[in-house]
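Lecture notes, part 5. Sequence design as translation. It can be helpful to think of inverse folding as translation between two languages: the language of shapes and the language of residues. The source text, in structure tokens, appears below.
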């Protein structure tokens, strides 16, 4: 699903940019130029929404961009609004949920057993790590 939020872009006198998402607790991303700030803003937006979805928390409604009025402070020389869009599911598949190859030594007799029983070792390791992650996460909550 594509999520769209107004981002307020601020440009510093040195050319660097900042993008702030007022609807997302004023989260901010920065970049050496507009393209980098936009790219970092997209990642920030994707991570924030993705984490809300994982925790099954409500997704904030985006403000109407026409109702927002950016103001420039002393450290910025201009400000403007742009809608920032991201397909969170697709972004997450590529950036957050992609597989990382790890070598895990397995005893020969256990590997033989896994093969005989059609046990998918990488899936089993992933499932066990995910269960441990969820256990630790619930302990911290």
């Amino acid at each position: 699903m594509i999520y769209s939020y107004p981002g307020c872009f601020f440009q510093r006198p040195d050319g660097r940019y900042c993008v702030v998402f007022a609807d997302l607790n004023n989260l901010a991303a920065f970049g050496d130029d507009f393209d980098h700030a936009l790219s970092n803003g997209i990642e920030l937006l994707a991570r924030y929404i993705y984490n809300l979805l994982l925790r099954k928390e409500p997704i904030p409604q985006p403000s109407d961009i026409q109702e927002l009025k950016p103001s420039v402070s002393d450290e910025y020389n201009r400000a403007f609004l742009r809608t920032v869009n991201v397909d969170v599911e697709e972004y997450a598949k590529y950036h957050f949920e992609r597989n990382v190859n790890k070598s895990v030594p397995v005893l020969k007799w256990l590997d033989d057993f896994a093969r005989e029983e059609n046990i998918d070792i990488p899936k089993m390791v992933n499932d066990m790590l995910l269960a441990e992650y969820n256990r630790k996460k619930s302990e911290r909550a």
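The translated text above is only one of many valid answers, since several sequences can fold into similar shapes. Residues 49 and 55 are 10 Å apart (CA to CA).
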